[in-house]
Structure formats: C-alpha cells, structure tokens
Amino acid sequence: MKWYFKTSVVVIALLSVGPLALPLVWFHPQYSRFVKILTTVITVVLTVVLGKALDASFKATMENYRVLMNALAPAR
Predict the structure, then answer these.
(1) Residues whose CB falls within 8 Å of the CB of residue 13, separated by 6 or more in sequence, listed in order
(2) How far is it, in rounded angstroms, from Cα 16 to Cα 76?
(3) What is each CA distance from 75 to 63, 70, 71, in whole angstroms?
(4) Which of 12, 31, 47, 59 could be stapled to 35 by a disulfide with Cβ–Cβ 3.0 to 4.6 Å?
(5) Cα–Cα distances in Å, from 52 out to 45, 61, 64, 66, 76?
(6) 3-state SS string over the chain?
C-alpha cells in the first residue's frame, strides 16, 4: 500500500486541508463505499459549520474595530 493511503496520513490531510483531501479517501483501495460517503458528508458538514463560525468571528471583529475607531476618533 502506498504511504499516502495510510490512515494516519489521510486523517492528518483531512484535518489540515479538509475537503481538498477527499480524493485520498475516494481512491483508497480498502475503504468501503459507506466509509467514503460518511467521511465525505462529515467533512462537508464540518467545513460548512466552521466556515459559518469563521464568518461570524470576522463580522464580530469588524464590529469591535468599528466601535474602537469611533471611541478613539476626536470629538467634533
């Protein structure tokens, strides 16, 4: 078996680059179709959830920055 099909490499790739590592799962000769589909669904769901969390974090940071800039602005 090739080194890039080792379970540890697949897990590290999924944790590092998310959906970009899915071809490693789908081309893996020993994974069943069920495992491939389940891994894909979990990866996509986690990507969407973490993307939304990142967006909310960015919006909160921008709002805090706006409040800070208004507080530091000289009175007119």
Answers:
(1) 20, 21, 24
(2) 49
(3) 20, 9, 9
(4) 31
(5) 11, 14, 18, 21, 38
(6) CCHHHCHHHHHHHHHHHHHHHHHHHHCCCCCCHHHHHHHHHHHHHHHHHHHHHHHHHHHHHHHHHHHHHHHHCCCC
Write out pLDDT tens, residues 51-70.
Answer: 999 999 999 999 999 999 99
Full-model pTM: 0.77
R_g of the chain computed on alpha carbons: 20
